[in-house]
Amino acid sequence: MKNNENTISRRDFLKLTGLAVGGATIASSAILAACSGKETTKKDEEITKENLGIVYAGIDGAYPPYCSLNENDQVEGFEVDVMNEIGKRGGITIECANTAWNSMFGQLDSGRIDTVAENLSINADRVAKYDFAGTYTKGGNRFLVQGGKANSISKFEDLAGKKIGVASGSTAYNELEEIKTKYNISFEIVPYDSSTNAYDVSIGRIDASYMSPIVGLSLSKASNLGLELAAVDSYKTTYTGYAFVKNNKRAAFIKDIFEKALKDMYQDGTLKALSEKWFGMDTSYVATIKDIGF
User: Fold this and answer.
1) Cis before residue 65, ω within 30 degrees of 0?
2) Which H, E and C letters describe 247-277, residue by residue?
3) What pLDDT score was predicted for residue 169?
4) Mean per-residue pLDDT for 182-190?
5) At how many degrees (to 10) do helices 270-279 and 249-267 cross?
């Protein structure tokens, strides 16, 4: 792809590699298990950049264009570039940790990762449990259907009797439950442990997949699935943010670094440029949690 300066090989994707301060790479879940809850500082010692150690960001390596293997067998994507930029500006070492979506929050809660770099939607339940470093993008989930079937879901009532795939435990899953109640319609929600299920739409196993349109169309293009967006618009606007555990000195320290870097990246146009590079559109949006109503 264009600039591969910040990418790594598939071989290195499976193991921890050396890294200069201020960049991002990939660490395997096996490595993280050995580092569970580890901090380089003593309990009452003040946390500084010098004793902070490695910052681990949970990321799914099969979630284009946020993070995936390209045709050159290298891991790259929007989240990887953002982590690189935050690391450089914050003067810290960030390593992206290959983490399955269905174990992402368990890894975060146990301290095996410091945050989630996975297009994580902000909602009331997550705000109650985690501290967020503000927002960094905004958008909305859409229904992905087979080519030529956009009008099969032109209004939410058209979901009646259909099978809709969605990532389990996601905000998208919760939105489908809300749609059921609000429009008083019955359809089957088919949960998936992985972040994506576009392939099952292409073979007719499910009628549609509910996900980020950026991810869905990227997957369709990369695998020649021939999918398109259903005619019905987004159910609601969603905001993404980096989550950190509450009441934790290390987490609070890292969150402050992320907040400052993201604000600067938004103001100087870097976040917009990265969004346009990977998505072909500007989805950047930096605001406080209070600003978006939480």
Assistant:
1) yes
2) CCHHHHHHHHHHHHHHHHHHHCCHHHHHHHH
3) 84
4) 97
5) 80
Same CATH fold, 141-229 and 8-138+238-279?
A: yes
More confident residue, 92 or 13: 92
Whole-prediction pTM value? 0.73
* 178 beta partners: none
Determine the average pLDDT of the residues in 46-61.
93
What's residue 26's pLDDT? Answer: 58
> Regarding the domain with residue range 8-138+238-279, which homologous superfamily does it belong to in the CATH classification?
Periplasmic binding protein-like II (3.40.190.10)
* Superfamily of chain region 141-229: Periplasmic binding protein-like II (3.40.190.10)
User: How is the chain split into domains, by residue range?
Assistant: 8-138+238-279, 141-229
Which residue carries 């309990």 as its tokens? Answer: 43
On the question of pLDDT at 10 being above 80, the answer is: no
Q: Which letter, b or e, does each residue of 43-81 get, where b requires 16 or more Cβ atoms within 10 Å of its Cβ?
A: eeeebeeeebbbbbbbbbbbbbbbbbbeeeebbbbbbbb
DSSP string, 67-136: BEE-TTSEEE-HHHHHHHHHHHHHT--EEEEE--GGGHHHHHHHTS-SEE-S-PBP-HHHHHHEEE----
CA atoms of 250 and 209, how far apart (whole Å):
37
Report the candidate in 158, 21, 141 with the shortest Cα–Cα distance to residue 88.
21
**β-pair type (243-245, 130-132):** antiparallel
The secondary structure of residue 180, as a DSSP letter, is: H
Give the pLDDT score at 215.
86
Tell me: pLDDT of 263 over 80: yes
